[in-house]
Amino acid sequence: MTGPDLDSLRLLVLVDDLGSIGQAAGALGIAQPSASKRLSTLERQLGLSLVDRTRRGSALTPDGRVIAGWAHRVLTEVDGLRTGAEALRTQRGAQLRVAASMTLAEHFVPAWIGEVKRTGPDTYVGLEVVNSEQVADLVARGRVDLGFVESPGPWPGLATRRVAQDRLVVVVPAGHAWARRRRPLRAAELAATPLVVREPGSGTRETVEAALRRAGVGPVTPLLELGSASAVRNAVIAGAGPAVISDLDVVREVAGRRLVPVPVAGMELSRVLRAVWPAGRRLTGPAADLLTLAVKSGS
After folding, report:
1. What mean pLDDT is predicted for residues 200-228?
2. What is the pTM for the complete model shown?
3. Which of 158, 163, 171, 182 has the greatest number of C-beta atoms within 10 Å?
4. 165-271 maps to which CATH number?
C-alpha cells in the first residue's frame, strides 16, 4: 500500500482546524476540487472514511479526527527534521538547544523563543519536542542547554524553576453518560474506569498517577496509550473513552460542546510546569535569557 503524502496529511489537519474543505484548500493555495480528490485518495490509501461531505459543508468523521491528530504529530516531526537539516546544510551549530514536553512546546515555548529571537535575531535555536522523562534525560546528558517539563518530578541532578501553571480536566464526548452527571466523579470511579492516556513518561500521565495516589486510590487503568495530546483528544471525540488532559488542549472543543469537562471530587489536578537544567551549572547567554523570559511570563 502506498503511504499517504505529507500534503494530504496537512490538508486533513487543516480541514479539522478550519472546518471545511474549501477553507483548507484556500490555506494551501489549491482548488477545492483538487483538495477533494486528494482527500478521496487518502481515504482509499488508508481504507477509512475520513470526511463527511454534505450540502451544508464537510466535517471529519470520528476516524478522520483520530487520523488528523496523528497526522499533526507526523507533520511536527517533519518540520523538526527540516529545521535540523537546514542547520546541518548551513553548518550552523545551535546556539541554544532546548527540549520541551508537548504541552509546553505547543502553548508556551514558541512565544518565549520568539522573544529571544527578537532580542537576538542571529541566535539559532534548536527545539526538541518529547515527553517530560525524555526532556530530563536530554538535559542530564548535556544534549540540550535547557528543558521544560510538566511532570511533578522529583528531578534528581537537575535544578528547576517554576515557569507556568496548568490544569488537567476529565473530558468526555457530549453523548457520554458522565456528561449528564449532576454530582462530581469520585477519585475511585476515575481510577476504576479505563481511560485514554498518554504514554508512560508523559507529564500528563505522571500528574494523573500522582493525583490518584494522593487520593488514596489505584493507578490509572489504560484503555488506549497514545503519544500526543491531539491524538488523545481526537480519540475521546471519536468515543473511545474518557481522558484526563490539559484544559489548554481542549478549549475549542469544550466551547463547541464536542467535549464536556467532568468535575472530580477529592483530586487536585493542577500542576506546575518547570524549567530544568543541570544542577550546579550557571546558565549564561541565550539559555539564561530564555529562562528569564519563561519565569517572568509565569509570575
Report:
1. 90
2. 0.67
3. 171
4. 3.40.190.290
